[in-house]
Amino acid sequence: MKIYDLTIALSGKTIVYPGCDAFECKCLSSVEKGDACSTHSFGMMNHAGTHIDFPAHMLDGGKTSSDYELSYLMGSGLIIEISENEKIITDEFLKNADIQENDIVLFKTSNSKLWAKAEFSAEFVCLDISAAKYLVDKKVKIAGIDYLSVDAVDNSKFPVHKELLANNVLIIENVNLVDVPAGRYKIYVAPLNIPDMDGLPARVFAQGE
What we know:
The chain is mainly beta. The chain has one domain: Putative cyclase (Glucose Oxidase, domain 1), CATH 3.50.30. It is built from 2 helices and 12 strands; from the N terminus they run E-E-E-E-E-E-E-E-H-E-H-E-E-E. The chain has helices at about 130-135, 160-165, and strands at about 5, 25-30, 40-45, 50-55, 75-80, 90, 105-110, 125, 140-145, 170-175, 185-190, 200-209. The strands form 3 sheets. It has a 7-stranded mixed beta barrel. A two-stranded antiparallel ribbon has the order 2-3. The longest helix is centred in the middle third of the chain and has 9 residues, at about 130-135.
C-alpha cells in the first residue's frame, strides 16, 4: 500500500514565516576530511518546516506536547482539495466533505505551488473563522494546511489558531501535499519527543485506507 511523505524537506533555503530564523546545519566533523566520524549540529525554531502547534502556542496555560499521547497524533484522516481559484477556505467548502469525528483534516490548495518560490509569499490560502468553527463543531482532532499558517499573514490576532487550539484541535502547518490525491487516509504525525513544548517539528505521512 502506498505511503505518502507529507513532510517538507528542511534546509537553509526552506521558507520560514516572516521574522523567524531559517534552518541552519553546521558540519562539526567529517570522515571525508579525516575525522573519526561525521557529525552535524542543527539550529532551528520549533515551528520551522512541517510542524504541529499545541494549544500553548497561542493560549496562556494551554496544553503542551507533554499532554498528548502518540495515539492522539494518528488516525483516520481526510485530505480535501480546494479549487485553485479560491483564496480562503470557508465552511461552505466543508459541508459536502465526509468529515468525521476525530478525523485529521488536511487542506490541499494552490499553496502547494508556492514551495517552488525562493521567498515567502503573503498571498497564500488560509482558513476563514467559519471553517475553523465548522471543524470544531465536527470534533476533528487535527487540522492542517499546505503552507506556513492557517491564519492570514496580516491578521495578528490569529483567530483561526485560537479557535482551533482553544477547542483542542491541533494544527499542522507546512504539509507537503503536492503529489497527494484528495481522499481518505490513515495519517501519522510523529513530532520530536521534547516535553512541554508549544510546537514541534514533525514527520507526517499518510497511508491509503
